Amino acid sequence: xxxxxxxxxxxLIFCNSIYAADIEVxxxxxxxxxxxxxxxxxxSDEVNEEINQAIDENEISLESSNNSEQISEVEINxxxxxxxxxxxxxxxxxxxxxxENLNNTQAWNNLEPAIIEKYLNNINSIKSDILYKEFINLLxxxxxxxxxxxxxxxxxPVVKKLYExxxxxKAYNLLQLYQIxxxxxxxxxxxxxxxxxxxxxxxxxxxxxxxxKSSLTADNVSLPNYLLEKTDIFCLLIDGKIAxxxxxxxxxxxxxxxxxxxxxxxxxxxxxKIEESNDINLILSENYSPNLIFLxxxxxxxxxxxxxxxxxQIDPNNLSIPVILSTATDMKTRLKAxxxxxxxxxISIESLSALYQSVDFSSAQxxxxxxxxxxxxxxxxxxxxxYYQLANIQIFPSERLQVILNYWQFAQKKGxxxxxxSLTNNIISSLEPSLDYANFGSKIxxxxxxxxxxxxxxxxxxxxxxSNDTNDDITKVKFLxxxxxxxxxxxxxxFLKSNVxxxxxxxxxxxxxxxxxxxxxxxxxxxxNMEIEYDKVFDDRLMPSIFLTSSINSKIxxxxxxxxxxxxxxxxxxxxxxxxxxxxxxLILKSFKEYNNSLLLKPIIIEILNVSKIL
Length: 615
Known about the structure:
Layout (H helix, E strand, L loop, with lengths): L1 H13 L19 H6 L5 H13 L25 E3 L4 E4 L11 H5 L3 H9 L7 H12 L11 H13 L3 H10 E4 L4 H17 L3 H13 L8 H12 L3 H14 L5 H10 L22 H10 L6 H6 L1 H10 L5 H13 L5 H10 L4 H5 L1 H7 L4 H14 L3 H17 L3 H7 L1 H5 L11 H10 L3 H14 L4 H13 L5 H9 L1 H7 L2 H13 L24 H13 L2 H12 L9 H13 L6 H11 L4
Antiparallel strand pairs: 1-2, 2-3
């Protein structure tokens, strides 16, 4: 039982840190262990000041400036002025005492609950990172300057949607922001309690989870799939109460109509009835119960059992940290989890670097890089780590730079260039322009742009232009610098206008269509040749129904931004930008010219151009 007690204390450190990585590029410190890096608590005033400064400087981030990744701690009060009486449930709204106030609540309250249900039921997969972040912001930020309480008929489906799409922390934060009293609908009681217990299990706050479980037991609350009973058995095992856990488990086996074999295998391993992990089926069955996944992961972590990649597929947001920290888990799976976590701003580049450095490559593999790269040809995650280690062992700067250039090229092909640029930031930051690097100036400048080192990028661009003839590469890099270092939509317009001739002559038909739509949407008056291709008179891409498109146009005219945004997401459900009918895309761009003072228009166009490989 010693290891179980150790993990409880570890969880108290861990629970405060897993969502604290919002800065993309920071100085690497290689002396810390991986566990220290991921579990480290950044609570000093100096660190918080640096984080806030970085957020303030990130004005060109591809998300709304209204997006707030954290909900401030607030004091709950029962003032009659902020109490909302409804037929079924009574929700007491807390008064926001700090942080930015957003007039978001009134917009939600103006919607019919039945309409909200229809919207949310039809928004299940958002492929755009920008629109996803805006959606989460609208769902999770209800601080209102008028202290206007939200109706419970709206609050409940909103929290359920956050939980359903894997944003369990934000759903939990909303529950803390609101005090739920006198709940009369049994279904809602079950949902709220399940969410809170699963949040504590997902963040490995086992002590708090067991205390919360005890309060539910005292209140005679029943949760689906015997979650409460199984958590009770788990907590008894943590406390070393084997005999009591045996009794409860035997009762569970009697009342459960279909035995949960996965739970029973984990229970048997924890009680030493199964000696070897090889005797356990570690792969979840297809008919697993979603509300048990966090209990399973907690049991596996405390038992030092490997988590399969299926856990990562089920919930990459909340189960990536358990996978990363599990030394028993296959390294390829841990690397995949770490890459996703970094790209989703869950872990820092420092933590990712520590994991990359922990991959065990032999001296023979590092001394024969060409052969090693061939041997891992189908393993992108391992190759990302290999290139990183290979770059760091090079003695001469010129050789190190050549490895880095190869690294960037590989990462770009795999869509992981953001990781490669960030990991090599320290190395390229130590380089000064010289004739030895003259031919690579445009590539180094590009890396600096993606790392938001705009002064360094400018320096390398100037050096490259003074050492080489102007070419398309450096022209594109200069545009990227201006694009990412400016909030002006005219930067995009100027780029498209100056490249119209190239698009017209050298592009595929789909690219020409896209440029044509963007030019029209931005009302750019240029002579763009769009001849009819008579072998493609009809377009097989689907358009939304006329009722949906009419509603979108109506909301544009009414300047009803919340309705407009939700309707757009319904029309985009499970679709990539490249899947859209040109007229559908044109309608979306028209919408975002009006939505929230056009704040998302430029980021969305940039995202579309990136997806289409135009940038």
